Amino acid sequence: MIKTRIAFAALAATLVATLAWSATSFNSSKSNVYRLTYPTDVMSATQAKAMLAELDKQGPADEARLKQWLPANFKRFGIAPDRVKKVVVLPRSREMKEIGIVLLTRVEDEAAAVATTVKSSKSNSSD
Q: Residue 73 CB: number of other CB atoms within 10 A?
């Protein structure tokens, strides 16, 4: 009886995790300096490319500067600032050739979004 309850609890937890994982779909766009990962319902690929082009003009920026610049410029690119709940900046590393920027509408999606950013940086080196 206890094994059945444990198995049921594990199954229920897996189902909840799967539903949470699938709730947000992420897209990734790349420039010469940055890789931007964002929920598909926050901005279009065109908006992302415009934002990345502007960031490229400014050159590489540190985390503090990006976390200030991005929210201050969301409206300029047609992004509703109140939709973005968190901005994550990932520095260049062996896994990341570009500076990673992750925009989140749900803070609980951070791990999945960061994984998407790192994975797409590794697999799309010729973008």
A: 14
- The parent domain of residue 67 ranges over 24-123
H-helix or E-strand spanning residue 56? helix 45-58
End-to-end CA distance of the chain: 54
Domain contains 37: yes
State pLDDT tens for residues 25-49: 677 777 889 999 999 999 999 999 9
* Spatial separation of the C-alpha atoms in residues 72 and 33, rounded to whole Å: 20
Question: In this structure, is residue 101 part of a structural domain?
Answer: yes
Q: Which amino acid is at 39?
A: P
Asked whether residue 91 is domain-assigned, the answer is yes
Q: Which residue has the tokens 């050159």?
A: 59
